[in-house]
Amino acid sequence: MKFVEELVVEEFLPTVRSMLAAELRDRGLTQRDVASVLGISQSAVSKYAHGEVTVTDEIAGDDRVREHVDELASGLADGSITSVQALVDLEVLIRELEAGGDVLARLHEAEEPALADHPSFRVHDPSSELRTAERVRSSLRRGLRIIENTSGFASLIPAVGSNLVACTPDATTIDDVAGVPGRIVDVKGRATIPADPAFGVSEHVASILLAARASGSDAGAALNVRYDPDLLAAMEDEGRESVEFDESGDLVANVGDAVSRAPGATVLYQTGGEGIEPITYVLGPDAESVAGDVRKLVSTGP
To answer: What residues form DSSP beta bridges with 191?
Structure first.
């Protein structure tokens, strides 16, 4: 009898540590630095570097594993991700890979063939509030890294600042929406993210997202950028449906009315008024998708 936790220790952990060690060395970290970041000995790093640790090809070849390793290595190397954040991110990934039919589940079934008779088998509950919240934060971090690495995004930041927010599947209040504390700001022509994402820190953009969802939108994330007719036209040319709303008065009711008129709209905008800056809100299924769509807009130009 073999538990999936044994596979995590015996196959997932050595594989991912080996991949992370290699990526960190490629980014200029010394063997001592890598040992400190990963919380392992320098002799262990040396073994990883010299291929003395067995790597499981099925895990190393998984697209999500490679993506997480690359993103975590970048963040750990430049200090934008802490070891604790990396640990949480990998814990969430492990739970996803343990789901029925996924890579750890397949490896587990190979060890325990009888498990194949249970197609809905899940070792851990993937719907717990903690794991749901961490999945949202992990997706949001990846979306924010896209924004940070998008040359020219700062030109889209309005005077009030931008925020990328994402919510849990059953979000009803601002506390169910994660965003950037203090918002994304333009510092010398570069989009700057002042703090790690947290829940309940965005009132305005979170309210827009919640109001849209309450009126039938299935969006899970939103990003506000400056309003510009050319930008709006470019998004419409990309096939996005847009709808205008009035930001004066009851914001929730106004957004709800707009979405009710255009249920498929993924671009909401208002053209401003006395004391109100015109803003465009881009909606999407998750933070990475929204950030990726805006990056494409920036790269192609209006």
So the answer is: 186
